Amino acid sequence: MRYVIPLIVIIYLTACKKQYKEQNEQLNGLLMELHQIDSNYSQIDTSTVYEVANQIKTHLIYLHQLVDTLDVEKAQFVAEAYQERNKLFYFQDNYLLFLEELKTSQNQLNALQQDLNNGLLTEEKFKDYFEKEKTIISNLKEKIDSSVQDMNKAFDELIQNTSSVETLLKELEEKEE
After folding, report:
1. Of the listed ranges 2-16, 82-96, 102-116, 148-162, the one predicted with least confidence
2. In terms of residue numbers, what domain contains 35?
3. Longest alpha-carbon distance in the chain
4. Is 162 exposed, middle or buried (0-12, 13-18, 19+ CB in 10 A)?
5. Per the structure, how many domains does the chain have?
6. CA-CA distance, 21 to 133, in Å (whole number)?
7. C-alpha dihedral over 129, 131, 133, 139, to 10 degrees?
């Protein structure tokens, strides 16, 4: 009997460590996925994106001042040239927010792993928290991927159209002088 109780304790602790090992592997897998999302997102040349977006905004502000003197054809040309601008603006407006959400998710996963390793979570609580974080990361990945894809589709066209609008603006400035 004297040996039975320590044996039971050893078996219980070994089983818990195996369980934690499996859960830690799940967390590490999700952390790696999150790191990959962050790495891909951080590789985007945001300076160029911001430059083009700000240039478009400047053009639009200037064109608003010329509304009275701008004929219909030129106004339609600008509207068509910049019709995809909202995709670029959405990316610009949400870039830092998405980075912050990625950081928050990483902190949450690290805290979850720490709580797990300290024995503060039951198996059911771990599953609940893990599934919630997995869903949050999946939704965030979808939002980021959608934003990046939309921005990429619109970006090249907007760059070409920006140079055309610049030519139009120069012509308008020359007429005013």
Report:
1. 2-16
2. 4-176
3. 104
4. middle
5. 1
6. 19
7. -150
Q: What is the pLDDT of residue 157?
A: 86
pLDDT tens for 108-150 read 999 999 999 888 888 899 999 999 999 999 999 999 999 999 9
- Over 60: is that where the pLDDT of 95 sits? yes
Cβ neighbours around 24 below 10 Å, total: 15
Kindly tell me the burial class for residue 46, based on how many C-beta atoms sit within 10 Å of its own C-beta (0-12, 13-18, 19 or more): middle
pLDDT in tens, 48-83: 999 999 998 988 888 888 766 777 887 888 888 888
Contact 20, 127 (CB under 8 A): no
Quickly list DSSP for the chain: -TTHHHHHHHHHHHHHHHHHHHHHHHHHHHHHHHHHHHHHHHTS-HHHHHHHHHHHHHHHHHHHHTTTT--HHHHHHHHHHTTTHHHHHHHHHHHHHHHHHHHHHHHHHHHHHHHHHTT---HHHHHHHHHHHHHHHHHHHHHHHHHHHHHHHHHHHHHHHHHHHHHHHHHHHHHH-
What the block records as the tokens of 18 is: 């195996």
Look at the chain and count its residues.
Answer: 177
